[in-house]
Amino acid sequence: MITAVVGHRGTGKTELMKRLMLYTRDSSVDFIDLDIEIEKKIGKSIRELFLEHGETYFREMERQLFLEILQRPNQNAYLVLGAGFDLSVIPETVRVLWVKRKTDLDGRIFLNRPRLEPDLSPLEEFHKRAEVREQRYHERADEVYLMPEGMFENRHHAMAMEKMVLTHTLEDVGGGFTILPDFFASEKRWSLFRARYASRGLDFFELRDDLLSTEQIQRALQDLPNDKFIYSFRKNQDWNSFWSDSANVEIVKKSTWIDWPWELGTPEDILHQVPKDKLILSLHDRTHFNGWGRFEDNVAHMKYAPEVSNFQELSQGEEWQKAFSTKRSFLPRSSSGRWEWYRRFKKGQQLINFWKEDTGSAGDQPSLWAWLMTPQKSQKFAAVLGDPVAHSFTPMEHSDFFHKKNLPVFAISIHRDEWNEALPILRKLGLSYAAVTSPHKENAAKLVPSLELKALNTLYWNENEKMWMGTSTDDQGFAELIEGVGMIAPLQKEIFVWGGGGVLEMIQKALPHASYFSSRTGKPRVGNEDAADLQPKILIWAAPRSSETLIPPASWNPAMVFDLNYKEDSLGREYAQKCGANYQSGLVMFTGQAQGQRIFWKNCEEAL
Length: 608
Description:
With 608 residues, the protein is an alpha/beta fold. It is 36% helix and 16% strand. The longest helix is centred in the N-terminal third of the chain and has 25 residues, at 46-70. The N and C termini lie far apart (55 Å).
């Protein structure tokens, strides 16, 4: 089968194909990148084609060459398409794999790709196309791979799990999966779904009456005979008519469990139709908790899935579940998906839990890859703590280190004002190793006052002493980032630092004679007033993308921008593009920091 690989610009499709070559090296599979094929045929780069002929000409070239490739004899191939490829050209016989990352719609700024609309800002240009493309990918995709953030290279456990996902060699997956109507969009799509997940050791498939038609539910029960099902009532309807329909009675009979939501009423009537030992009573808000709880003895299982707004509410739900863990499942929900880490933490600890492809039925459900990366019944865990952290490379970076300890690594969002509430709760849950990022480095330092540092980025829980130990590896990472700056700017005064935040003290120690500016006012910091008359040769970008961050004066023309941020929508990256400077992302600094963190954690363990 030919698989067309689609996804937004910069998602990582090309690098993914290189990994797939490794995963399938024992098979006769071809890998074709349409952009590379176009460059070979025309003898020009994609950038040159855009500059000389424009986007319309390029899209026509894409279409023609794509159709030519489909005529080639080898029909077992992956074909990587550009982000703007016209998906309507793809025949139904071709499988479409959408490679997706959760940061796709944050936007990306490219320094080595042609601009499509130079009159717009880089992010405006990206977003203008991304939202339309997102919908088209969703409509056409036969399979969605939610690819994690970070670099896979030499992350052996992460690659092993990715291989299982992409080569459909899953076993003993566990967890539950809500079947969505998109999987029935065509016979091919449903067949591919079954090939991926039937008899793969899932705990259950969920069939919701508000998402699927009766015919689709019947089809799932028929075509997945070796799997278990939860049939979930969600629609209020004429119950006399429902139970008089033999098709509905048969669905209830074939389902392993029946989920009755409190929102449809108390369970007395459903208990006349469904045996107690297969009835799950669910609640999706907090206001009816006491009334709902009174029926616990009348049903097989209680599922509590409320909107959770803070760590205190999360802790309350956790305590409720642990009090009767075999009969209770707690699935916190949020509009942002911030409790995804907790859902993973509960893997193997409760009857009901879910993972997803694409958006799933709830934003807090983890991806299949993230689910597979999580060990069962974790008693301890590592995490990156900050806000935002959805983009963080930390879980991937440290994945092999903690896999050897059988520990998961989570990305946990803690808002600026939540630290004092969140940290004791996380410690109680089992947080033992932490990488700390903005805006909490100063808060982390307060946990280890003996170090007399204003900011820490690394914590370790000393179980013997019942105390946190910590360090900062920012200086190690920063030294690697700016290695060789003296060759560009022999005078440190010609090195301008824009912003600083929690790492300002560290930068000042490394570059005591540099010129420091506030990114909020645009003015030199106290003691740097003479820098107002200087021009930078190097600019170190240490400011976030926010409404408070200003752009440096247009008169500045640095030769090099060193960015402490590695995120692809960084304002430092945009500034470098705008002023034509060479650019170094914060990825070098991040890698150096992470190496130092692993050394610190290992030394702490050995000291015990």
